[in-house]
Structures are given as C-alpha cells and as structure tokens.
Amino acid sequence: MMVAKLNSRRNWREAGTRLVRVAALWVACVLLALSMGRMARSQDTPLNQVHVGDRPGTAPATGAPAGAEAPAQTGKDALRLHPGSFIRMNVDLVLIPVTVTDPLNRLVTGLEPEDFQVFENGSAQKISSFASEDSPVSIGIIIDLSGSMSSKLIRARESILQFARTANPEDEFFVIGFNDRPELIEEFTNSVEDLQARLATVRASHRTALLDAIYYGVAKMKDARHERKALLIVSDGGDNRSRYTEGEVRSKVRESDVQMYAMGIFDPYAATPEERMGPMLLDSLTEESGGRLFRVDDVDELSDIAEKISTELRNQYMIGYKPSDVARDGKWRKVKVKVNPPPGLPPLTVYARTGYYAPLQ
C-alpha cells in the first residue's frame, strides 16, 4: 500500500514537471517570435532615408565628395515613385509648367491662354486654368565633383551662388555633390550663406556617377515644401561610374514632377565614349522633363547662364486642363503643347513635359 502511494506521488511530480517544461517552452517561443518581429521592423528603411547606394554584388565606392553623408537605402526599388506623380495631377486637373522662347533664345512673356494649344495622345484638350505668376520652387543643385572638374570648380561654385541669389526669395535649395557616388552636401535651405559655406568645403577627384546623382536628386524631392520642383545639374562629362542605368533614371524622371536643367561644360575633344555621350544624355533627359540643356563654351559664362536659368524658372506659364480621357489605367499619356504666336511675333519654341502617367485609382 505504501509503495502504491509513493508511485502515485512520483507520477504526479513527473506530470507537473512535464507541464512546467511545456509552459516554459511555449513562453520561449512567444518571446522569440516577438523578438524576430522587432528585428524585422528595425531593419525596414523609412522612405525618408533613401539614397543611391551600391547594388548587390558591387564594390563600395570610394573617394566620395566632402559633405554630409546621404542616408542609406535598402535597394534601388526603395526610391520608386508611384505612377501618376509625373506632372502634378489631381482627380480632374493636369498642370504643366511651360517655357516659351523666341529664335534668339530670349524668354517670351505676356502670352494669353488663347495663344496655346494642348494635345494629349493627339487629342486636343480644353485649357481650364492659366497662370504666369512667379511661384516658389524647390530646387536641387547637383554639382559634378569628379577629377576633371578641378580647374572648373571655382567657377561652378560661383554660378550656383549666382543662381541662388537671383531666385525667388521663397525658393528652397539642397545640394548634392557627386564623383564616385552622390553625397548630400546641404539640406533644404533658402540661405545663400549656408550654400556658400558648404560649397567651400568640397573638392574635385575620382570618377563620374552622374546617373546615380540624378536618381538621388529626384528621390530627394519627396521632402520638398513647394509643388514646383526643379533640378539644376552642373557637369563637364558623361557617366562612367553609376550603378543605375540610363533606362532606370529615365523611368525615374518620367514618374516624377521634377523639371531638369543642366549646364554642360563639355570638352569638344572628349577622349572616351562616355564623355562623348554626355551631351546627348543630358539633352534628352532635360528635354523630356520640360527643362533644357545649356552648353557652356567658356567657364566664365557659367554665372550668366545660371542667372538665365533662374530667370526662366521665374517666368513660366502654368497651363492646366481636364483630360478628356478619364480612365485610371496607369498608362503613359503623351502631351504636346503648341504656341500660336500673336501677329507680329516670329515662330516661338515651347519647352514642356512630354507626358505623364495616368493615375491608377
């Protein structure tokens, strides 16, 4: 009888031990799951910390320009903009910034809505809004700091400062410098003194990651305060270092609402294919965005050209229309803006975006 009681007690103790072990194992699993969830969340990169970084399988870039480190990104797709943001568009209205020049490349102001025609996928559209006031712009300045810019850097700095001095007082600027990789040199500011202080610290060396810098500049515009956005690129050559391809950058520009201007200090005797392709690359990208390329034959002209671009941004027409095609299919729609010169004026040239992606919903 005593033996039976002892066995019964032993069995109860063993059962209790097993229950304790099972409970402990369950608690450990729960804690492990919670810990893994926290780790996964901590590894997500917020969209406001994106940057063109090295792609998987590429060696880290060296010799970056002096200045603040740009935030890291989790991959090239972290910077993708949602289709429909190219040309600012709400439910009913497409807005297009337009520049008009005469045969002598002088700005033409004072035109009226009836002087313009807008076509979407070849179909005429009715202009429903029209303005030509000087509204503030968020501007990204992208400066080439590769080795070939060493002798041109002083003039390039002066041109950027002249551009800022002649801008709308409410404009804001950020600066990206690039050689082997792009770096954020100055955050958004409207202080010319801040720009001057930061630009004084940069030096020129190494190679040219132009496409990466453009990609980063467009992505950086998500932090902009103003609806109007533009990039100003100062470079002397083609790309020979970027991780992003021309197609990827072109898609990025198409999906954005950023106008691109460039001051190209090109060498007429360029030795490499990349340098020879530099003018064509910048010309096509700026034209597609509604901006344009200014070729610089003499570095002493940089400041004058920079002031001209600043003046152009302050004298654009903003044309709005309600698309006759109301489908939300996310497809690319070609846009063509034409101007019919009033009597007495010569043929005029129009600079405007070439299209936009329709919204998806």
Question: Helices, strands, pairings?
Answer:
Blueprint: H1 2-43, E1 94-101, E2 116-120, E3 123-125, E4 127-131, E5 137-144, H2 153-165, E6 172-178, E7 182-189, H3 192-199, H4 210-220, E8 228-235, H5 246-254, E9 258-264, H6 273-289, E10 293-295, H7 302-313, E11 317-321, E12 332-339, E13 349-351, E14 355-357
Parallel strand pairs: 5-6, 5-8, 8-9, 9-10
Antiparallel strand pairs: 1-11, 1-13, 2-3, 2-12, 4-11, 6-7, 12-14
Indicate how many domains the architecture comprises: 3
Helix content: 25-40%
Shape: globular
**Major sheet description:** 6 strands, mixed
Biggest sheet: strands side by side, in what order?
Answer: 7-6-5-8-9-10
CATH homologous superfamily of the largest domain, by name? von Willebrand factor, type A domain
Give the N-terminus to C-terminus distance in angstroms: 81 Å
The run of helices and strands is HEEEEEHEEHHEHEHEHEEEE
Q: Hey, roughly how much beta strand do the residues contain?
A: 15-25%
Might you state the CATH topology name of the largest domain?
A: Rossmann fold
The name of the CATH architecture of the largest domain is: 3-Layer(aba) Sandwich
Detail the poorly predicted runs: 1-13, 29-86
Which structural class best describes the helix and strand composition?
A: alpha/beta
Which key phrases capture this entry?
alpha/beta; Rossmann fold; 3 domains; 6-stranded mixed beta sheet; 4-stranded antiparallel beta sheet; 7 helices; 14 strands; 31% helix; disordered N terminus
Task: Kindly summarize this structure in a few lines.
The protein is built from seven helices and 14 strands. With 361 residues, the chain is α/β, with parallel strands linked by helices. The protein folds into three domains: 1-44; 94-132 and 317-357, no CATH class; 133-313, 3-Layer(aba) Sandwich (Rossmann fold), CATH 3.40.50.
